[in-house]
Specification:
The protein has 99 residues and is mainly β. The protein has one domain. The protein contains 1 helix and 6 strands, in the order αββββββ. It is globular, with a radius of gyration of 13 Å. This is WYL domain-containing protein.
């Protein structure tokens, strides 16, 4: 059994992708940062499973760790989004780890 929090921290630290179960499906994520909001952990990640219309449209989504289960830490590495800023999404969020 993979500990989701630890797997995501490793993925962020080494820029590795993960397969995760979210809302009943398996998605591939490129996690960029982890933050805390009102006592809950979240990860901001690019959903690589989503069909984006163009590379410019790609953006980070926010995933609550309570609803996310990492099923596999992959060997694939990723480049951060060009627009990525290592800051939490909201001023009152607490940044825990970023690329």
């Amino acid at each position: 059994m993979i500990d989701t929090r630890l797997a995501l921290m490793e993925a962020i630290s080494f820029r590795r992708t993960v397969n995760a179960r979210y809302n009943g499906g398996i998605i591939t994520l490129a996690p960029h940062l982890m933050f805390e909001r009102h006592g809950d952990l979240f990860v901001s990640a690019l959903n690589l499973s989503k069909a984006w219309r163009s590379p410019e449209e790609r953006r980070l989504g926010q995933f609550k760790l309570a609803g996310l289960e990492v099923t596999e830490l992959l060997e694939d590495v990723f480049d951060p989004l060009p627009t990525f800023e290592p800051a939490p999404p909201r001023a009152d969020d607490t940044l825990l780890l970023a690329l």
